[in-house]
Design goal:
This protein is an alpha/beta fold. It has one domain: Spore Coat Polysaccharide Biosynthesis Protein SpsA, Chain A (Alpha-Beta Complex). The protein contains six helices and 15 strands. The chain starts with 5 loop residues before the first strand and ends with a helix.
Amino acid sequence: MFADRKSFEHDNVKAMIMAAGLGKRMLPLTKTVPKPLLQIHGKSLIEHHLDALQRAGIREFVINVSYLGRLIEQALGTGASRGIEIRYSREPAPLETAGGIKHALPLLETGQSANDAFLVVGGDVFTDFDFSRLMRSACPANAKLVMVGNPSHHPLGDFAIGANGYLESQGNLLTYSTIGLYRPAFFEGLRAGPVPLRELFDANLDRGTIEAEYFSGKWSDVGTPERLEALNRL
C-alpha cells in the first residue's frame, strides 16, 4: 500500500483547501457566511491560505464546498484574476475530511502521476506556516502531517512524533494542524460517504508509516466567534 522511499518534492504540487464544513461552532456568524469566508484583518481565512500557498509556488487548487458553497465559488471564481486555477469539489452534504479528499481525488489526480503528492490544509485555521518547507520535504510514507502545540481548547492533543519522525499514539501528544501532504494511495480502499481523517490515522499508526514534523509558529483553529475576535484584535 505504501509508497517507495522517494521525496514528495516535485514541480507541480496541487493544494486542496477544505471548506465544506457547516461551521456550527461559529454560529451565528456562519448562518449566512461559510466559515472560510470569515475575515481576519480584512481578508477571508481562505484568501490568507491562497496567498501563502501561492507564495510557495502552488498554482493549482481544489476546494471542496458544501454548506453555502456557492458563496465561496462566487468570491473566488476560477482563480484567473490571481493567475491560478481553482477547481471545486462539490459535496451534496459534508463528507468529513477523509471522505472529502476521497471525493476530490479525480480533480487532484488530473494531470498528475499516480503517486504524486498533494497538499491539504483546513480552511478554518490561521497560520504563518511556510508551505514551501513542507513541499521540499522528503517522506518515505504516503502521508506527512504538521503537528502543533496543544491549544487551550484541545489540551490532550492527538498524536506524538516518535524519535524516528513517525506518528505515534503515545508520548508527548501534539495537535494535528490540518496541514499535511498526502499521496492518493493513502485513501485507497476508503469507503464512500463521510469519513474523518482520524479514522485513517488510527488505522495506520501501527504500521509506522505516517511521518510528522513539528511547527512552533503562529497557528490557530478559528473555531468560535471569540477566537475570531481575538485574532482580529492582534
